[in-house]
UniProtKB/TrEMBL annotation:
<keyword id="KW-0813">Transport</keyword>
<comment type="similarity">
    <text>Belongs to the bacterial solute-binding protein 1 family.</text>
</comment>
<feature type="signal peptide">
    <location>
        <begin position="1"/>
        <end position="19"/>
    </location>
</feature>
<dbReference type="Pfam" id="PF01547">
    <property type="entry name" value="SBP_bac_1"/>
</dbReference>
<protein>
    <submittedName>
        <fullName>N,N'-diacetylchitobiose ABC transporter substrate-binding protein DasA</fullName>
    </submittedName>
</protein>
<keyword id="KW-0732">Signal</keyword>
<dbReference type="InterPro" id="IPR006059">
    <property type="entry name" value="SBP"/>
</dbReference>
Length: 437
């Protein structure tokens, strides 16, 4: 309870301070304009060092195009995620905010609610591919009711099925499963072929990995409003919807039949466990392949033995909805050069830059994912997942780590034998109460 009070108090501080500024709350936030009047000026941009390490050429190309179009220079100030929110809070409440910045998509709602970002709704149509932005990533940059846009999708990551080709083939599974039914048949064969291996999981599904469990729920319920949805000014729960429960039961059947992941752990250690050799498949982010095969913490001999596919859905050609994480880009309401910041954002996320970024990460629009998949065979699975239906957490500033802990415990209780409907009803009451303050 003290944690929740502290969280609400922290957000309230941001809201009060923002309300005292010219930007107000998200309902009357400063409207964005696109400016090309930059001669003799220099804007400041905060980007995570992921870009510096992964796609510095994209950044330099955007800077050059911006200079040509506006006459202004760009000072990129590289950031790291460690303590970033503290630094961001301070900057947004002061007169030292950058002109454009990166924010994690799970962090955006807090700042949107506080009126810390300019309202981009009026210029959204001038951003290339804005009608094709990845669904879940786009939603994270919107107001709670989805009617206004305050942050633009940047790049994404998706969860997929990572599996041992050698173990599947040795068990007689020659082709990747295309439906959940085929996956279950394949896992049955893999389990039987490795019956003598201690603590073997044909598919590692630890009980508290709530993201995967909820993805199964989304497969039958739908991807909009997972966990809770906004109904006017209030949040209402969706965890007890019969269709969501149906999907959760399908997940629970798989974890009982094929996993020895236990009921009190989540996915945090699954990469290291898979590297030890007694796990045939996991559900994780595409980059976890590198973690499994890491020379220091994993087993590099597995490099050519791992494959990835989008987690199959119930019907042929469909996929189980993936949780989509990633980053957004926004213009602070207190930026000294907000109009130029919005123009740099427009250029940095245009088709040219995003197509180049697609060589390194999932781009921000569905029509550009093909370029990402073409860049490497290893990108196909995460690309397929991003192109399919994806889901996201409730877009509220009151969503917190405590809500995730409650969900972990609820799904862990289901995995331990608890009634899905009863456990989901209990956690729904908790989460909805938190979301409604």
């Amino acid at each position: 309870m003290n944690r929740k009070i502290a969280a609400v108090a922290a957000i309230a501080t941001v809201l009060v301070a923002s309300a005292c500024s010219s930007s107000g709350s998200s309902g009357d936030s400063k409207q964005a304009t696109l400016s090309t009047d930059g001669k003799g000026k220099k804007i400041t941009v905060w980007l995570m060092d992921d870009a510096q390490k992964g796609w510095p050429g994209v950044v330099e190309a955007a800077k050059a195009e911006f200079k040509e179009k506006t006459g202004a220079d760009v000072d990129i100030q590289w950031q790291t995620w460690t303590n970033y929110t503290t630094k961001l809070d301070t900057a947004l409440l002061s007169g030292n905010a950058p002109d454009m910045l990166e924010v994690g998509n799970t962090q955006a709602a807090k700042y949107i609610e506080a009126g810390s970002f300019v309202d981009l709704t009026g210029v959204k149509g001038q951003f290339e591919n804005s009608d094709k932005w990845l669904d879940s990533l786009a939603a994270s940059g919107q107001s709670g009711d989805g009617t206004k846009t305050y942050a633009v999708p940047y790049y994404a990551g998706a969860r997929v099925l990572i599996y041992r080709k050698d173990l599947f083939e040795a068990a007689g599974v020659k082709e990747a499963p295309k439906t959940l039914g085929e996956l279950k048949d394949a896992l049955t064969k893999v389990k039987a072929a490795n019956a003598s291996t201690p603590n073997f999981s044909a598919l590692y599904l630890p009980g508290q990995n709530w993201y995967t469990a909820a993805s199964f729920g989304a497969g039958t319920f739908g991807v909009k409003g997972i966990v809770a949805k906004k109904d006017g000014d209030k949040w209402t729960g969706t965890l007890t919807d019969p269709k969501f429960i149906e999907g959760v039961k399908a997940w629970n059947d798989l974890q009982k039949e094929f996993s020895v992941g236990g009921t009190t752990t989540d996915e945090a250690t699954q990469d290291a466990l898979m590297a030890k050799g007694n796990i045939a498949a996991i559900v994780g982010a595409g980059w976890e392949v590198g973690s499994v095969t890491d020379p220091k913490a994993g087993d590099p001999s597995l490099k050519d033995k791992l494959a990835t596919i989008a987690l199959p859905g119930a019907a042929a050609g469909s996929t189980t909805p993936a949780f989509l994480g990633g980053s957004d880009l926004a213009v602070p309401a207190k930026a000294a050069n907000a109009g130029l910041g919005a123009t740099f954002l427009q250029i940095y996320t245009n088709t040219k830059q995003q197509t180049e970024l697609a060589k390194f990460a999932i781009p921000n629009a569905k029509n550009l994912v093909a370029a990402y998949k073409a860049a490497s065979p290893a990108n196909k699975a995460t690309g397929d997942a991003a192109e399919g239906a994806t889901w996201f957490i409730p877009n509220s500033p009151l969503w917190s780590g405590a809500d995730e802990t409650a969900l972990k415990n609820a799904f862990g209780a289901i995995a331990a034998g608890g009634d899905p409907a009863a456990e989901l009803k209990k956690v729904q009451d908790t989460v909805v109460k938190d979301l409604n303050g």
